[in-house]
Amino acid sequence: MYDEYNALDKNDTWLLVSRLACVNMVRSMWLFKHKFHANGTLSRYKACLVANGSSQQLVVDFNETFSPVVKPATIRTVLRLVVSQTIEPQSLQFLLPGTSELV
């Protein structure tokens, strides 16, 4: 858990802000798992910080839910096009670019 927390902090995953009275706080929780080797012996402990969606309130926190997920076949197709067209791959910021609304 300590390593996971430090990695999240190092990558600037969140920004600590003061709580607004009009905002519902979505709780978070830690999930703990064990990772095993093929022979069944314990490899390592895993920890993951997740948002507890059950603490969201309809209309206050969300009107509809949508989770954009890319299928592996789509990623393979795009990579094939990049390779076949000898295109220089680039990366970009697509998560919350220039968001002006309260998140």
TrEMBL record:
It holds the Pfam family RVT_2. This is Ribonuclease H-like domain-containing protein. Residues 11-84 form the Reverse transcriptase Ty1/copia-type domain.
